[in-house]
UniProtKB/TrEMBL annotation:
Membrane topology: Peripheral membrane protein
Organism: Bradyrhizobium niftali
Protein purpose: Involved in beta-(1-->2)glucan export. Transmembrane domains (TMD) form a pore in the inner membrane and the ATP-binding domain (NBD) is responsible for energy generation.
Domain ABC transporter: 6-257
Transmembrane segments: none
This protein's name: ATP-binding cassette domain-containing protein
Amino acid sequence: MSPPLLQVNDLKKHFPVSKGLFGRKSEWVYAVDGVSFEIARGETLSLVGESGCGKSTVGRAILRLFDITSGQVILDGQRIDDAHPSTMRQMRRRVQVVFQDPFSSLNPRMRVRDILAEPIRNFGLAKSAEDLEVRVTALMDTVRLPREALNRRPHEFSGGQRQRIGIARALAAEPELIVCDEAVSALDVSVKAQIVNLLQDLQQKFGLALLFISHDLAIVEHMTHRVAVMYLGKIVEVAPRREIFAAPRHPYTKALLSAVPLPEPGAQRNPIILGGDVPSPINPPSGCRFHTRCPYVFDRCRTEEPQLRAAEGDQWVACHLDALPAG
Ligand SMILES: Nc1ncnc2c1ncn2[C@@H]1O[C@H](COP(=O)(O)OP(=O)(O)OP(=O)(O)O)[C@@H](O)[C@H]1O
Ligand SMILES: [Mg+2]
């Protein structure tokens, strides 16, 4: 059996932050603190959770935008967290990213043609100048932008069109996995749906895997295969879409999903309001990190950290409750 496209094993990323007036004493932000998951070829895994829970840090670790603190990131059976620069070059091609704000990630002085040609040149994908041109125009067709637009610069486009350029640039490298970090979050509702549909079409066409980082659960419910829910640097539940939305098991997942509007007009889940604030990732609670806000908390939760365990089928939950109530 071939390995999963991406495997993340016990990933940790702790950031040092300085404390005190002269920044001499440093402490740590436990941004991601032991996260494991897999993504299959052609699969969409969504990473959800409140602001600051570590979603982008996971994405950035996979893209190797920094060195991780510990753990492993394995692409197609090969470790990339500590890969040598020469192997890293090929690995970088295979994992691309689309950020929330294409404006800040697209060079305003470059024409679209050059923005798209850059990764093709960098990774040596074109056989000739003609091939380069063919590839660049094909990318415009793929993301449904007019070919004439190749000579324009990013500021001449709307937000949705710019995001299409961002997607085309990611595709130019012929990746197998795209990390979409809040890729549609800043767009208007109708444009959002178009870009999500485009991503789904591209996934089908190219067999792409997506790590879809989002706090927009209605969008996630519409397009994902599986969902991983994060709380304070940990995954508390991971499950296929249908199971998690129909029968969330972790008390945090239940609260998070209870706020998502149901597709039927006027219908609403019973919202669960959690008490207290999200604790700081600088000093996370002992035991289960969610225990300070959990309506079902008992003694064990304060001292012992729950591990992810199979609840039913492919639904995994990190909670000490024996009979995890579904739904
Ligand atoms: N470079 C950094 N230095 C110090 N702390 C950082 C750094 N990057 C992230 N953090 C901290 O790590 C934690 C996780 O941040 P991260 O950006 O991964 O969260 P997120 O889930 O993506 O949030 P959002 O939904 O707001 O995008 C936060 O407390 C954040 O302040
Ligand atoms: Mg983020």
